[in-house]
Amino acid sequence: MEIISKLTGCGSYLPQNVVTNSDLAKKIDTSDEWIFSRTGIKQRHYAAVGENTSDLALIAAERALSHAGVTGQDVDLIVVGTTTPDRTFPATAVKVQKNIGCVRGAAFDVQAVCSGFIFALSIVDSMLKTGQFKTALVIGADTLSRLLNWEDRTTAVLFGDGAGAVVVQAVEVDTRSRNEDGILSTHIHSDGNLENLLYCDGGPSTTQTSGFITMAGKEIFRHAVTNLASVVMEALAANNLKGSDIDWLVPHQANKRIIDSTVKKLKMPKDKVVLTVQDHANTSAASIPLALDQAVCEGRIQQGDLLLMEAMGGGLTWGAALARWG
Ligand SMILES: CC(C)(COP(=O)(O)OP(=O)(O)OC[C@H]1O[C@@H](n2cnc3c(N)ncnc32)[C@H](O)[C@@H]1OP(=O)(O)O)[C@@H](O)C(=O)NCCC(=O)NCCS
Known about the structure:
Helix 3 (53-68) crosses helix 4 and helix 7 packs parallel to helix 8. The protein is of the alpha/beta class. It folds into two domains: 2-173, Thiolase/Chalcone synthase (Peroxisomal Thiolase, Chain A, domain 1, 3-Layer(aba) Sandwich), CATH 3.40.47; 183-324, Peroxisomal Thiolase, Chain A, domain 1, CATH 3.40.47.10. A hairpin with a 3-residue loop joins strand 12 (306-313) and strand 13 (317-324). It has a five-stranded mixed sheet, with helices on both faces. It is globular and about 60 Å long. The protein has helices spanning 21-25, 32-39, 53-68, 92-99, 116-129, 153-156, 217-238, 256-266, 277-280, 287-297, and strands spanning 2-13, 17-20, 43-46, 77-81, 106-110, 135-143, 161-173, 183-190, 198-200, 213-215, 248-251, 306-313, 317-324. Bound molecules: coenzyme A. Coenzyme A (COA) is lined by residues 30, 34-35, 38-39, 114, 153-154, 157, 215, 217-218, 220-221, 224, 254-255, 258, 282, 312-313.
């Protein structure tokens, strides 16, 4: 027998306030044409005043639990990927734990910026396979609107708020045949030498403020194209698969041109890519589970479909995960 971890439910939440590119053009010197042509973004959602990351995460989590047919009491592990926790401490995950009525197990946050969901999924996959935990919530939730510098139009237009969650459950199977079921593999990387290409210029230990996003856009673009191509190929090779075996690419939604470049590398048809960047902008750790949930709700992703998820973010961090849905 062997333990595998399976994705058994998903859910997401977007704050109600929708801000279009034209809305932004009333506030700063930009245009719909500039933003859309460089990024593919048309609009984003911003959390309301008093609406915090844990509030978004909670709704996404509740929807994922309901979709999986389990309750908060069944959960024994919660990992939230976030860069914008409600408080410096404790973790946003413990707030979710309390609010879903979960009184056991462990809950903690993972800080890998836009790669947070992939890192959290990778950790949870490993933890479930030890047999120590049975039912996990992996959540990506961020309110990056709180870190925007409105004096920096290059970054201010790129980000939005949201949350997405998946339920991941440990299942005992007879030794599984290759590529059959559950999470097949995860691959995570970091390179701290590139820290200064994308960072937030605040922090409790330095400025005692949360700070603002600072980014070297062109370099980040270049590293994203290279690192994502490399990590998707690593994931495929580890499972003896090729791009044409993938049913759906569910990429981090930072920039449509970056996604197009990964699709080209994989030689995948464009209609097999879940694209939400136009509606959500870059929601950091939330973007993959948000996109996944949208495609599942629309009936595009079906039980047994092979998903390739990938992301890159500040750190730099990057990673990929291959999994069968359901
Ligand atoms: C940010 C990004 C869209 C900028 O595109 P770019 O083509 O590199 O643009 P540049 O920074 O060279 O700026 C080009 C011009 O547009 C201007 N500009 C920048 N932001 C603008 C905005 N929001 N609206 C209008 N003009 C803008 C610049 O001032 C510059 O003007 P200049 O030529 O007169 O100096 C692009 O670099 C990018 O997508 N990088 C990756 C970002 C990313 O995905 N980050 C998250 C990773 S998780």
